[in-house]
Amino acid sequence: MQLPAGVDIHDDWFTPDLLERLTQASNWMPMYFLNRASRFDTHSLDIHWYYPVAVTEEALFGRVQDQMDALEEPLDVLRETWEMVAARIGGTLGLYECSVSANTFGTEGNPHFDFRNRAVAPAHLTVLIYCSPQWDITWAGETLIFDEDGEISGGIMPRPGRIAILRGDPHHVGRSVSRICPSDRRVLVFKMWDETLLQTLVDAANIKRPAAQPG
């Protein structure tokens, strides 16, 4: 499988027990049809079925580890999955979003970047964990990565338990499932920063932290 630089996949990070628990929890979660762009600094067509597990309105400097620590059964498996992924990636990571998304037939993704300010993009990581209990090539739903010319530079099939890591916030999209797909496409999403690199880029771009709110 050929993938662009900064994008890699892992099919062997889960233990059978952890993957089974994650699959059950994520596929029973209720979904909300939301326009995220009205609240978060994303793109205008960021509209899909979605469950916000742990979020902050300040993606650059806000962190959600306290929200992850507070998750109770059966969603505690999301915290365990985050801890496993963070340990595998290594370094100092700052998680700013954990969510579960669902693509149904006709719910088209829109090619996008996860964060608008490209000055800090090299420090950004998105982790996609495909949680559908089974998948068939005829069901579509691939994640596509694009190069600077708008050509497809890589594609990722949403196989159960597959983990995709997108470093540097590449232009990407999650495609709709096909008409014959009998279910939705469930994906657990972690969005985070390499904190060490982020601080270097923030300083270089002279980005100021928001003023603390009185409380």
SSE topology sketch:
Elements lengths: L6 E4 L5 H12 L4 E4 L11 E9 L9 H5 L6 H14 L3 E11 L20 E7 L12 E4 L5 E5 L6 E5 L3 E4 L10 E10 H11 L10
Antiparallel strand pairs: 1-8, 2-3, 3-4, 4-10, 5-8, 5-10, 6-7, 6-9
Keywords summarizing the entry:
3-stranded antiparallel β-sheet, globular, 215 residues, 10 strands, 4 helices, Jelly Rolls, alpha+beta, single chain
Characterize the structure shown:
This protein is α+β, with helices and mostly antiparallel strands. It has a single domain, classed as q2cbj1_9rhob like domain (Jelly Rolls). Helices cover 20% and strands 29% of the residues. The chain has four helices and ten strands, in the order βαββααβββββββα. The strands form two sheets. Strands 1-8-5-10-4-3-2 form a seven-stranded antiparallel β-sheet. Helix 1 (16-27) crosses helix 3. It starts with 6 loop residues before the first strand and ends in a 10-residue tail after the last helix. 31% of the residues are buried. The mean pLDDT is 92.
Summarize the structure.
20% of the residues lie in helices and 29% in strands.
Biggest sheet, spatial arrangement of strands: 1-8-5-10-4-3-2
Q: Which range does the strand content fall in? A: 25-35%
CATH class: Mainly Beta
Q: Which overall shape is indicated by the principal axes computed on the Cα atoms?
A: globular
What is the CATH architecture term?
Sandwich
- Radius of gyration, whole Å: 17 Å
